[in-house]
């Protein structure tokens, strides 16, 4: 587990603790706990921790969806505690930002395939 602190410099807004979680592959997961300024959005938090640079597909997706006020459940990649949220969602203390991987196989097809091979 990685823990980081985001220092706001001259910004006197109170800090709130949040966490970010992402599993870029079935065998790797990343979890970060940070403090951000009150009023920070999901998009701003992703930028602050550097995930936009580390995961280029996330940067591209965020650029395409940064102005969206409605969540498209089928293709949405970001949420708080399993609830998909727009990128302009203002974070609350102890929120956990989650990045969702796109499905590589339909879950129903996967279960059927597993049942056939057993």
Question: Keywords for this structure?
Answer:
118 residues, 6 strands, alpha/beta, Ubiquitin-like (UB roll), elongated
Brief description of this entry?
This protein has 118 residues and is an alpha/beta fold. The chain contains 4 helices and 6 strands; from the N terminus they run βββαααβββα.
Number of strands: 6
The major beta sheet can be summarized as: 6 strands, mixed
Return Rg in Å.
Answer: 16 Å
CATH superfamily heading: Beta-grasp domain
Task: Please describe what this structure looks like.
It is a single chain. The chain is an alpha/beta fold and 118 residues long. It has a single domain, classed as Beta-grasp domain (Ubiquitin-like (UB roll), Roll). It has four helices and six strands, in the order βββαααβββα. Strands 1-3-2-6-4-5 form a six-stranded mixed beta sheet, covered by helices on one side. The protein starts with a strand and ends with a helix.
Write the layout of secondary structure elements.
Layout: E1 2-3, E2 15-25, E3 28-37, H1 42-48, H2 51-54, H3 56-65, E4 78-80, E5 83-84, E6 96-99, H4 107-117
Parallel strand pairs: 1-3, 2-6
Antiparallel strand pairs: 2-3, 4-5, 4-6
């Amino acid at each position: 587990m990685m823990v980081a602190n985001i220092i706001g410099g001259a910004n006197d807004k109170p800090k709130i603790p949040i966490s970010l979680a992402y599993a870029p592959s079935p065998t790797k997961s990343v979890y970060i706990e940070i403090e951000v300024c009150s009023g920070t959005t999901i998009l701003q938090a992703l930028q602050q921790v550097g995930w936009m640079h580390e995961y280029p597909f996330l940067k591209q997706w965020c650029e395409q969806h940064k102005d969206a006020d409605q969540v498209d459940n089928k293709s949405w990649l970001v949420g708080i505690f399993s609830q998909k949220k727009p990128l302009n969602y203002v974070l609350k203390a102890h929120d956990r930002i989650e990045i969702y991987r796109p499905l590589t196989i339909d879950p129903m097809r996967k279960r059927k395939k597993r049942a056939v091979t057993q």
